[in-house]
Amino acid sequence: MTSIGTGYDLTNSTFSPDGRNFQVEYASKAVENGSTAIGIRCKDGVVLAVEKIVTSKLLKPGANKRIASIDRNFGMISSGLIPDGRHLVSRARDEAASWRTNYKCPIPSSSLAFRVGSYVQAYTLYSSVRPFGVTTILAGWDSEAESRVDGQVGSGPKAGSGGETKSIKAGGPGLYMVEPSGLYWGYYGAATGKGRQTAKAELEKLDLSSGTLSLEQGVKEAARVIYVAHEDSKDKEFELEMSWVSSVDGPTKGRHEEVPKDVLEEAEKFAKRAMEGEDDEDTATGGGENMEE
Q1: Edge to edge, what strands does the sheet with 256-258 contain?
Q2: Is 32 a residue whose pLDDT tops 90?
Q3: Rounded Cα distance, 125 and 231, in Å
Q4: Farthest-apart Cα atoms in the chain, separation
Q5: Each residue's pLDDT tens digit, 269-291
Q6: Are strands 74-80 and 189-192 parallel, antiparallel or unpaired?
Q7: Mean pLDDT of 154-182
Q8: Closest by CA position to 214, among listed 242, 178, 169, 173
Q9: 194 close to 34: Cβ distance less than 8 angstroms
Q10: For residues 211 and 175, what is the distance between their CA atoms, to the nearest angstrom?
Q11: Quick check: 158 pLDDT over 80?
Q12: What single string gives the DSSP state of each residue in the chain?
């Protein structure tokens, strides 16, 4: 069986003999050449961060945003082909608006990830379209208000036609990543783009699954991870863009917003100090080895 795309990569609706869809794989390669983007799920919110490479000195700082708000409580970031990412932002906003129209409430993070993933997956089925060359990271805060649970297994309805169980709460922070194939997963920490491997390694060190990282600390760690991932392309200037969403008791009051300028500057200072500390340790280790020789 062949492992190259000759003859099997001309259309999106054809599998190779070994079960591969080369058009989807090519789309993933486009993502790998994109800017590094990460998401961190904290105990009281979610942080999004992206490395924006400065391709021209004529670009206006702070313009050309890469993080978009989908709903009041939802943000989205993408890596890969920027126009594809903007199209998915528009689609996600339509899905969120449709949910509000039908159900009179914000769309849950899992439902938005499902709808965006289904939309992306549909573009891998037909020869008349191509896959999206972008991976998106979705971050939001779902309402923690008590929710009615109908038809529970057990003693049956306590009140009303379907019954209600008190003190059942859902919601909280949500972080999902949608790949060019339409596959999506829920994450504690997600990374995509050119520096994804380095970023993933740094995220794993944070032990995010323990749920102890605060949102303020998450902003600093997100900045540090982006700076570490940028080391492989340190000859290129970049701009750090960040956003966050917290609980209703947090700094954003349940809304997705840009990280304030003073908080962003403090996070960048923290990242630079961390990078300088690692360089000093490397220098000291190298000096010690020379002394032993």
Answers
A1: 189-192, 37-42, 45-53, 238-246, 256-258
A2: yes
A3: 38
A4: 81
A5: 999 999 887 666 655 555 555 54
A6: unpaired
A7: 70
A8: 173
A9: yes
A10: 13
A11: no
A12: ---S-TTTSS-TT---TTS--HHHHHHHHHHHTS--EEEEEETTEEEEEEEEE---TTSPTT-S--EEEEETTEEEEEEE-HHHHHHHHHHHHHHHHHHHHHHSSPPPHHHHHHHHHHHHHHTTS-TTS---SEEEEEEEEE--SB----S-SSS--SSTTT---TT-B--EEEEEEE-TTS-EEE-SEEEESTTHHHHHHHHHTT-GGG----HHHHHHHHHHHHHHHGGGGTTS-EEEEEEEEE-TTSTTTT-EEEPPHHHHHHHHHHHHHHHHHHHHHHHHHHHHHHHH-
Distance of alpha carbon 148 from alpha carbon 162, whole angstroms? 9
CA-to-CA distance for 264 and 258, rounded, in angstroms? Answer: 9
- In the numeric block, the tokens 């899905």 are attached to 95
Q: How many whole angstroms from its chain centre is CA 59?
A: 25
Q: Scanning the structure block, which residue is given the tokens 């904290």? A: 42
- Does residue 168 carry a pLDDT above 70? no
Query: How many angstroms from the chain centroid is the CA of residue 37?
Result: 7
Per-residue pLDDT tens over the stretch 39-52: 999 999 999 999 99
Spacing of C-alpha 192 from chain mean position: 8
Sheet arrangement for strand 172-178 = 67-71, 74-80, 134-142, 172-178, 184-186
Rounded to whole angstroms, the Cα distance separating 187 from 264 reads 23
